[in-house]
Amino acid sequence: MRPAEVLRLLEALPEGRSLWLTGLGRSMVPLLWPGDGVRVLRCGEDALAAGDIALVLRRDGRLSAHVVARTGPLETRAFLGASDEVERVLGRVTAVKRGRLQLPVPRSARSPLLFSHRLLRWLWRHERVRGAWRAVKRGVRPLASARWVGQKRSP
Questions:
Q1: Are strands 86-98 and 53-58 parallel, antiparallel or unpaired?
Q2: Whole-prediction pTM
Q3: Do 84 and 66 contact (CB within 8 A), yes or no?
Q4: Residue 81 CA to chain centroid, in angstroms?
């Protein structure tokens, strides 16, 4: 289904109703991976709080499910990336489905999610962390290949 069709379907959905969608991007890795399903509860901006995962229409016309970094004014962010220019809120993610596993995203998860989002964004500023993450994605153990400052070479 094309993004424009998904947008029309969501906009026709009354507030308080849910719909399952499949994500395609990598902006929320490691929390959400491409191909994960998300259940979106149709709601407005006033129903969101910091730490929620909101589905928004961005000003560039793309749909994104990103972390609400703050409200008033609303700011959503990719898990490790920059903030979005939000056109309007379409809903809030209430569950995630990966394969056969389906996990609820309760409102009580907002604080830990927001904390981990901020911590990982802070860590991401360090080149070694980004290098380790790239190595993990390639399937290489980063600690086995890294040479740390102060480490003595073996003969």
A1: antiparallel
A2: 0.80
A3: yes
A4: 9
pLDDT, tens digit (0-9, with 9 covering 90-100), for 43-76: 999 999 999 999 999 999 999 999 999 998 999 9
The answer to whether 80 and 121 have CB atoms below 8 angstroms apart is yes
Q: Among residues 100, 45, 101, which one has the least CA distance to residue 74?
A: 45
Based on its alpha-carbon atoms, the radius of gyration of the chain, rounded to whole angstroms, reads 18
Would you state the structure tokens that stand for residue 109, as one six-digit string? 């998860």
Peptide linkage before 73 cis (omega within 30 of 0): yes
Gap between the Cα atoms of 104 and 97, Å rounded: 9
- Pull the structure tokens for residue 1: 């289904």
131's tokens: 């290098």
Question: Which CATH number is associated with domain 3-145?
Answer: 2.10.109.10
Q: How far is CA 146 from the centre of its chain?
A: 29
Classify 96 as helix, strand or coil. Answer: strand
